[in-house]
């Protein structure tokens, strides 16, 4: 882990219900977090930054901001959501009604991708220096993953990956975590997180009643599991 002076500022005990009460939460701006990420983007090397937290915590927004501000020569975004199991598979397994739970992802596939990305930095002129790794992407408008949609060049030093279960201590998730140089856990206020979730579900077609039921039911059960691993993060952060 790369530690900076940012981590010493603005610390406080958690006053949200999204992480255990004794968890130290650090307040940062997006600009400060971008600079912390920049310290991992070392040309000629390869680091992986993981951003995790409960559904609606703001993972995708922060990850996209980091990659946009660092630029395509320094950073690329590879979300975990590309490893959602397809709906036809979830129906066959009887898990479609709780899509988003940890066992509705291809965790082994995601782990293999991170392991490949972790070792894929190759010096110019060496064998494999031109090899592009293609990662899948999740499309919310169709609620399905699309394979080989995200190219990762070997010369890009920072891979940013975001997803719910980077800190889960079962199945192949610990192997995925071992590939990640630094993991940040986002801990926004719960009212804000719930509001984001409900609005997201409504935006993608759920009725207000169904959106609220999903956010406070399936999503909340997943959130409780995810929050239990917050103490394994390198940084627990509330964005101010």
TrEMBL record:
UniProt KW Kinase keyword: yes
GO MF entries: kinase activity
Signal peptide: none
InterPro entries on file: P-loop_NTPase
SUPFAM superfamilies from the UniProt entry: P-loop containing nucleoside triphosphate hydrolases
UniProt entry keywords in alphabetical sequence: Kinase, Transferase
Coiled coil: none
UniProt key word Transferase: yes
Cross-referenced PANTHER family: URIDINE KINASE
Protein name: Nucleoside/nucleotide kinase family protein
Naturally occurring in which organism (per UniProt): Nakamurella flava
């Amino acid at each position: 882990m790369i530690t900076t002076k940012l981590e010493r500022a603005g610390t406080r005990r958690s006053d949200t219900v999204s992480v255990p009460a004794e968890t130290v939460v650090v307040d940062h701006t997006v600009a400060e977090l971008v600079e912390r990420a920049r310290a991992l983007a070392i040309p000629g090397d390869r680091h992986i930054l993981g951003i995790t937290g409960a559904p609606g915590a703001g993972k995708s927004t922060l990850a996209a901001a980091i990659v946009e501000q660092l630029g395509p020569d320094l950073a690329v975004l590879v979300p975990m959501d590309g490893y959602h199991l397809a709906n036809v598979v979830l129906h066959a397994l009887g898990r479609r009604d709780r899509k988003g739970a940890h066992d509705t992802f291809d965790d082994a596939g995601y782990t293999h991708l991170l392991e490949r990305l972790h070792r894929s930095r190759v010096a110019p002129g060496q064998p494999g220096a031109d090899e592009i790794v293609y990662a899948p992407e999740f499309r919310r408008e169709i609620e399905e993953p699309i394979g080989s949609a995200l190219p990762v060049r070997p010369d890009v030093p920072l891979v940013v990956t975001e997803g719910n279960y980077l800190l889960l201590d079962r199945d192949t998730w610990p192997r995925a975590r071992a590939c990640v140089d630094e993991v940040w856990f986002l801990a926004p206020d719960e009212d804000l997180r719930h509001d984001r979730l409900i609005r997201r579900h409504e935006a993608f077609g759920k009725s207000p009643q169904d959106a609220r039921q999903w956010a406070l039911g399936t999503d909340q059960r997943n959130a409780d599991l995810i929050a239990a691993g917050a103490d394994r993060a390198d940084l627990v952060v509330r964005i101010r």
